[in-house]
Task: structure prediction
Amino acid sequence: MSIKRPANQESESDPQELGFATRAIYSQKKVSDFADRQRAVTLCGRPFDSNGKAYGPGNIEDDLSTGPSQVLEQKIGELEGAEGGLVLSSALAAFTTLVRSVLSPGDRMITQKSACTATTHLMHSTLSRLGVELVAIDLTEPSNLRAAINDRARLLYVDTPSNPLNALLDIAYVADQGHAHGMIVAVDSTFASPALQRPIEHGADVVLHSLTKYINGHGDTVGGGLFSNAEIIARMRKTALADQALTAIAPNASTLILRGLKTLALRMERHSSTAHVVALTLEAHPAVSWVRYPFLPCHPDYAIARKQMSAGSGMIAFGLHAGEAGARRVTDRLQLIDSAASSGEVGSMICRSADLTRAVPISLRESALCETLGTDFIRLSIGLEDAEDLIEDLWQALATL
Result:
């Protein structure tokens, strides 16, 4: 898009005409000419003080003076195609706020059955504390959803691509099924980010993000976000305000996440391209028994990934023929890739099933709510390093098997 205008010609640009990367950088809704854009760079790049106010006189828009959290809500909301947003202290605070806003004690939340991890445990314990029933099913089979529906089913909640197995659900299909039964449909899109997938465009009502992961991208702060229509956001904001001590995000955290958001498009492109190469290489290694990466044709949900994602993101799940002992040996021998349960950062990180399931009680593992994660499982979060260096590090570690 050209930023040069003929002399004395006034023109306004619809923000939706600007590219994703441009809209991730600029906070103002309309930028009419080059001078205004240069001023916007200065204003939006100013640091915020401890009270969340921008240093220096004047703002392009009044809403910038309200602080970084409001700017962050506006920017991500626009990128997601949502009417509004709410940023909170963590992804758990966002999930809890969502549930408390749309469900009452005795209501039912239906979700896709997934692997038993610490995240599953937190979800289950949160719902139990609020008196909400959790039903986990295979949502790819319509009869399962029909069987799970009762007069208290209010929320259909899915995670796609899922953590940690990279399973995908067709958001448009799930949204149609949920709406047909009068449910609100919420999608955790953390591992895709709005750069690669925008669930509202496919019919979802609410999008949840762990802002700690790709949107921040630097591993130096935490936050969570909810994005939806104006009515649902107003309801969730009221819920969050009633418990600000647990839900309020720090101004400095919002500032750091805003910094990360400016490079999101570029980073997701690099995460995805490198992860695709690494996944192809792992698929060809004789020690590797299986690989799950959304943009590999061998992925069972490959067609869905190509339909609703623009790239495969940076998460890879794979298993080894040597099982748990082999997984431990490989992760211990890596020299460049860090062993950590974190993900979505500039540096690559790897973890085994034990790292993700340590906090899960035996009772939950043996329930029908989730499935036990195989001991051969490895999750690899690809960073921004050169692909050749990551492959060399993996190859020297796999050579021990």
